[in-house]
Amino acid sequence: MMNRKPLLLALGCLLATTAHAQKNLYHKGWVDFNKNGRRDVYEDVTQPLEKRVDDLLAQMTLDEKTCQLATLYGFGRVLKDEMPTPGWKNEVWKDGIANIDEELNGVRNTPKAASKYTFPFSQHAVGINNVQRWFVEETRLGIPVDFTNEGIHGLNHDRATPLPAPIGIGSSWDKALVRRAGETVGREAKALGYTNVYVPILDPARDPRWGRVVECYGEDPFLIAELGKQMTLGVQSQGVASTLKHFAVYSVPKGGRDGNARTDPHVAPRELHQLFLYPFRRVIQEAHPLGVMSSYNDWDGVPISGSHYFLTELLRQQYGFDGYVVSDSRAVEFISEKHHVAPDFLDGTRQAVEAGLNVWTNFYTPATYINNVRELVKTGRLAQANVDARVREVLRVKFRLGLFDQPYVPDPKQADKTVHTPADEAFALQANRESLVLLKNENARLPLQKSQLKNLLVVGPLADNPDPAISRYGPSNNLVTTVLKGLQAAAGPGLTVQYAKGCDVVCPGWPDTELVPTPLSPAEQQGIADAVAKAQAADVIVAVLGEDDKTVGESLSRTSLELPGRQQQLLEALHATGKPVVLVLINGQPLTINWAARQVPAILEAWFPSPSGGTAIAEALFGDYNPGGKLPMTFPKSTGQIEFNFPFKPASQADQPIGGDPNGGGKTATNGPLYPFGFGLSYTTFAYSNLQVTPREAAPKAPIDIAVDVANTGPVKGDEVVQLYLRDKLSTVITYDSQLRGFERVSLAPGEKKTIHFTLHPDDLALLDRNMNWVVEPGEFEVLVGSSSTDIRAKQTFVSKAE
Fold it and tell me: So which residues are the signal peptide here (predicted)?
């Protein structure tokens, strides 16, 4: 059960002076939710959880039960009223509702959602209390609402603390930082009145063309599981539910196509469990989230949101999930509309409820779905027992969240003191710093020495573009420090920072121009020429190139991973000036920057930062911060190599030799990654030594302790991400060439040495055998420790004994 405060004596005091208190629902230590004048079992905080659920469920009518199976999208989306009105008595939610999503959050780019209850923060808490009070006081049983919201870039609320895109957070490889990110999101949600946050995304981003790569922690299931676990623990430590998404096999639609596709993942059963379900299983079993979002794709011909195997057998029976499952928007409709395994929405509803779906979500009134369930029960097509089971699971979460003990934000004014504080802003800046990955630094071009520079030119369509720093799924209306502004603020006296846009992110006709190139227009030629002219007077050029929120993101998959538009031409023109060029990438997915990797002396990967990203980038370029992030995804050299990712089966990503064996040779393909998984440079160097594996022969199920010394052998302080990989030398089924099984981000001063410790458990050694059972087979395992998946600094073996 989650940590929560019982009903406080302050609750009665809080409401005693209000007109609502005249209803005499609020008593010392309890609320008379059903308004019958006595303390029912479900209203008694001292009663066991299951008894409270049983008592409430027994009092509910079919209409009240079905209302606990649907989402109502908040004001400006589906809900038309900021505050309750008399007309609500004529709406389907007169009998309650499971959750209200994005209520009064000021969602980005939705003018109709603008509200006086969004900001200041205390006003939002007041607004949420007003809405909650209506459900408590005006519905028969007073069942409180679960207020849900997004949280992958920080809480999706006007001016809340903004965080970098998840792909940037994944590049930090910092479990403590992600735990604090979760605590921040959860704390702010709690203060504002949200009780459930849709975070983290646990989808492995195996295809870099897929638009939502930017919203994932990376491609490796172990990295995702470790970071997702910390995010979940952080959120739920604040008394708020964490809802994992998107369950499952969502991130590899055929060809990486997003938008209207989002279906037909080509994933074998063993790969399903080892790659795509692994993060969900780990996080559910180790962090116990209260929510899971079901995805709208299929697997092996069955829609996930209508699959008893996924939503009941796997989630509840095997993994032990005991929260409630909410559908992704329109997932239930897709059972008939997209997948055509139901004749209509009504039968799709039946399939979803029977499969184990608890709460339907879509961008229209919940009445349609709720009436579907009612009709199915009344006509005998859906058993009442199925509905009761789904409702019970929703109610259980509401009890565990404390909504029946304290349904309101106790002190709304406190939100102004606890949301987006100066300490939160400092943390957001640190998250941006740790997300940076240094991809190239030829001849120590970076850091730039201010004392040796007089004129610095910042060029590119992303140099002064705030849009990538503000996500649809994160806070809005925060002041953005772009790269240009960050460099101008950090330059100091004696260094002039000039700016030229050069070109737009994309060009007219894009993306078709990636198939059939078109000549530059006169305006485009002039833009590049102006940038080149300014470059002639610069000592160094910082080119800020990549993607914006209109070229990568949800429903924005790509067929090419090249720099879009005219950016490559701009970069080549700048390089041709002979002036030193530093490339800063603002992007949401790996890019095939082969020319830059060969020609540009320094490249810094910044992903989509949050609003303080420009400050962090300036610090890194000028040496006030030493970037230490590592890539959470492989960068391919070409889309023709895809899939090209980690982990991989032995030889599946091997080079194609140019000669030799006629069955394996031939100079026809590009070999190797542009940048491998786990890669990242530093302004300093690190040495590994004294790898110890104990014991060298392990009894079954015994832990394996690993220690390695890491020293900073360079001139400046820096962070190293120490990575542990495991290789099963001989197995009854083919295993991955190696698998990530541990990592630690460590900060070291020059000359400092630390011993890094890891522990391998049986789950780390397990494989799915030929009968699809998880087992640890006896035999020899190789431990590989290093700075990336290809930069292995030390190796050692141990033997796992037979049972």
Answer: 1-21
For Cα atoms 462, 426, 227, give the angle at the middle one, nearest 5 degrees.
Answer: 80
How many CA atoms lie within 13 Å of 75's alpha carbon, on the beta-carbon side? 21
Backbone phi, psi, residue 46, to 5°:
-80, -10
Order of strands across the sheet with 540-546?
A: 437-441, 602-605, 581-586, 540-546, 455-459, 496-500
Could you give the C-alpha distances from 675 to 369, 434, 440, in angstroms and in order? Answer: 48, 19, 10
Strands 540-546 and 496-500 come out as: unpaired
The DSSP bridge partners found for residue 70 are 360
Which residue, among 791, 784, 627, 709, has the nearest Cα to 171 in the 3D structure?
Answer: 627
User: Closest Cα to residue 682, out of 631, 722, 643, 628?
Assistant: 628
Q: Which amino acid is at 91?
A: E
Q: How far apart are CA 439 and CA 264, in angstroms?
A: 34
CA separation for the pair 295, 331 (Å, rounded): 6
CA distance 686 to 681: 10
pTM comes to: 0.96
Question: Can you give the pLDDT at residue 109?
Answer: 82
Reported as a single tens digit per residue, the pLDDT across 94-145 is 999 999 999 999 988 888 999 999 999 999 999 999 999 999 999 999 999 9
Of residues 437, 450, 402, 780, the one with CA closest to residue 627? 437
Cα(733)–Cα(752) distance, integer angstroms: 43
- Distances in Å between the alpha carbon of 415 and those of 132, 192, 420? 17, 6, 9
Say whether pLDDT at 20 is over 60.
no
pLDDT at 386: 98
Rounded alpha-carbon distances, angstroms, from residue 128 to 123, 132, 192, 375: 9, 6, 8, 32
Residue 12 has pLDDT above 90, yes or no: no
Of 283, 291, 49, nearest to 194 by C-alpha is: 291
